[in-house]
Design a protein that fits this description.
single chain; Elongation Factor Tu (Ef-tu), domain 3; mainly beta
Length: 161
């Protein structure tokens, strides 16, 4: 079985004429990208030469991309790394990628659904839960409302009503 991959950024388009690309970041910042030399991108490997802050994202240069046309061809490409390449977490920390796919249950063990996405609009993480039957709802990922326990999310069902 292939190791899980985590998406750290997406190519938003070309930057200049020399092959640099604009990145939309899904990681905490530019330093998160600097920890990695190699990214997987739609079946190919890209070697990071440099990355710097740029607007709301970052500007990166890859060894394999040498002109604007090649950079523009990467638009929309997701840049991933193996899950094992991420730094270890302290107690109470988590990666969004580790939450997706977890079952969500009420305190009494009643199945409420499954975590399908993690969003953050600035006020803290929200878990998107797909309920049985396909409807989705958002719940704050906050102690007492939705807690990570034993490989599942235990949530207050009133928040998903």
């Amino acid at each position: 079985m292939a190791e899980a991959r985590v998406t750290l950024a997406a190519v938003a388009g070309a930057h200049g004429i020399g092959g640099e690309v604009r990145l939309k970041l899904f990681a905490q910042g530019v330093d998160s990208l600097k920890r990695h030399q190699v990214f997987h991108a739609d079946g190919r490997v890209l070697t990071l030469k440099s990355v710097k802050p740029g607007g709301v994202g970052a500007i990166a240069r890859f060894a394999e991309i040498s002109d604007r046309g090649a950079a523009e061809a990467l638009r929309g490409t997701l840049l991933t790394v193996p899950r094992s390449a991420l730094p270890p977490l302290a107690d109470g920390e988590y990666y969004h990628a580790d939450l997706i796919g977890l079952p969500c249950e009420g305190p009494d063990g009643t199945a409420l659904g499954m975590v399908v996405a993690v969003e953050n609009f600035g006020a803290g993480d929200l878990l998107e839960i797909e309920k049985p039957g396909g409807k989705r709802g958002l719940i704050p990922f906050r102690a007492g409302v939705a807690d990570l326990a034993g490989g599942k999310v235990v949530a207050d069902p009133d928040f998903l009503a």
